[in-house]
Amino acid sequence: MGGYSTINDKNFKVIGKPIKLKFNGITLSGFEGQSIAALLYSKGIRGLRNSKSGDERGLFCGMGVCYECAVSVNGITGKRACLEPAKDGTEVRSLDYKTPYNPIPPIISEYKIDSEKTYDIAIIGSGPAGLMTARTLIGKGLKVVIIDERMSLGGQYFKQLAKSHSFENKSLNDYQYRRGSELIKQVQNSDIELKLGNTVIASEKISENHLNISLLKNEVIELINAKRLVVSTGAYEIARPFPGWTSPNIITTGAAQSLLRS
Ligand code: FES
To answer: Which SUPFAM superfamilies has this protein been placed in (predicted)?
Structure first.
């Protein structure tokens, strides 16, 4: 455990519903819209798992890349705390290196191979490139879907405030933030379909104009059809290892930014 981490700025307002989750059996309160990592961090909890050497490991990249924040959520191991939304009643447990990875196999629940739902374009990633591409293509009358493993649009570059909080003094938002917010609203108000919280686990070319794309969400696999696939998975920080980087008290600037916004 480290110190408590919260920001006392009168411009930040909590707007998320109060929730309670359990971490290793201890009840903690937070707000709907926070990630599990943000909620735990705000309570001073840094160590989320133990490595083979017994060292504590925890949040590092804050954007779903490094898996340092892997925890068990409602009995399913290997969940990334930085991506998982904190929900009321969730049971979170830290992991030991011996815990088997994801012991519950995904359930294949839905096939849409022959369904009418074929997208002209499937876009992986909802950062600036994905959003701009989607907005342009929907304007051409195409049927577009955006897939992102995060629960919110914007990627890293246009990352917005978590839904748990609002920032009252909008005039302090910089150009990048405002530009992102504007683009996100345009996409949300369009006919672009959004599949958030979905990880693309496979893509197979069936014929010239037909791809099968497998999505994983909440241990359920969904298969969708698309004619073309646009990969706009964006960028992330490359952290250079240095002695001590595995300490749960060391996080990247991207992770710090994510925490600041939730
Ligand atoms: S994947 Fe969550 S901190 Fe890197």
So the answer is: 2Fe-2S ferredoxin-like, FAD/NAD(P)-binding domain
Q: How confident is the model at residue 145 (pLDDT cuts 50, 70, 90)?
A: very high
> What ipTM was estimated for this complex?
0.99
Whole-number Å distance between alpha carbons of 241 and 247: 11
Residues 118 and 213 reside in one and the same domain? yes
CATH number at residue 83: 3.10.20.440
Q: Which atom of ligand 1 is nearest to the CA of 80?
A: 2
Query: Does residue 236 belong to any structural domain of this protein?
Result: no
pLDDT in tens, 105-128: 555 554 545 455 789 999 999 999
Gap from CA of 212 to ligand 1 centroid (Å): 28
The separation between CA 13 and the C-alpha centre of its own chain, rounded to angstroms, equals 22
Judge whether 192 lies within some domain.
yes
Q: Which domain holds residue 189?
A: 107-231
- Given a cut of 90, whether residue 40 has pLDDT beyond it is yes
Q: For strand 144-148 and strand 193-196, is the pairing parallel, antiparallel, or unpaired?
A: parallel
Total domain count for the chain?
Answer: 2
In angstroms, what is the span from residue 255 Cα to ligand 1's centroid? 8
Round to whole Å and give the CA distance between 92 and 84.
11
Please report the pLDDT score of residue 10 as a whole number.
80
